[in-house]
Specification:
This protein is of the alpha+beta class and 283 residues long. The protein folds into three domains: 83 residues, Ribosomal Protein S5, domain 2 (2-Layer Sandwich), CATH 3.30.230; 47 residues, no CATH class; 135 residues, no CATH class. The protein contains eight helices and six strands; from the N terminus they run βββαββααβααααα. Strand 1 and strand 2 form a beta hairpin. Helix 1 packs parallel to helix 4, helix 4 packs antiparallel against helix 5 and helix 7 packs antiparallel against helix 8. The chain is rod-shaped. The mean pLDDT is 82.
Length: 283
Amino acid sequence: MIASMTGFGSSKLTQKDTEIYCDIKTVNHRFLDVSIKPNDVGNELDVFIREDVSKKIKRGSVDIRFKLKFPASNTYTINKSSVKNLIDSLHATKLIDVSSIKLSDIKDIPGIIKSEQKALINQNLLKKTYRLALNKLLENRGIEGQKIKKTFFSKIVKIQKNSRKLSESNIKLSRLRASALNKKITMLTSNLDHERLEQEVAILVLKHDVAEEIERIDFHTDSLKKELSINSCSGKKIDFILQELFRETSTLSVKLDRPSYKQIALDMKLLVEEMREQAQNIE
């Protein structure tokens, strides 16, 4: 199934005093690039998320953000060496009765008491929140991908319709071109080798024949429709097919010399260019 590289998914889970929010946003990128914030969610979770994302997303810039509200436990440590140094200094001054000093008197002095806050993060809850957000993201990318697919098929139908018009008129145009060249040259010259003249005319007509380009355009549009319809649709392959299709429509617009038919070729070229822009968003 075709998937867009642009998408968004979010989730929130609550368990007792813990609240976890997860937002995942993806945008276009040539390769798969995963960013997880905050950076201190833990190595185990970081590795788990990166491996999981690589299994479900082929390419794109993936921005995963967690917002955590959780209980924490505090630990306190008294620096005995600092306390001893402080007491020794006070003894030396003989200005304060050291025996009357209380903990409340020295607790705010830097280096005396060290406190650490340890987060109690539920890893399973984090993973569950991430999975919910990722599923919503994948669903969103799929919906956007179907919109792109619908647009592509609409443009392909227009290209194929124009291609049939040109194919049906190609033989007629070749005959008219040959006849016009013959008349023009006959008017300008006399005593010519008519067999040689017809050969030259045939060569000139062949230069403007577009049967080969139309055949290739039909092949590429059929290939594009086939690729868009398979489950393992590849944005890189679609981009390659569109490059070939753009080349053929460009040649077509150069070869056709009648304004009405040249305009048809230019319209086809424009449709291909529009698809090439949209293809940049296909995974």
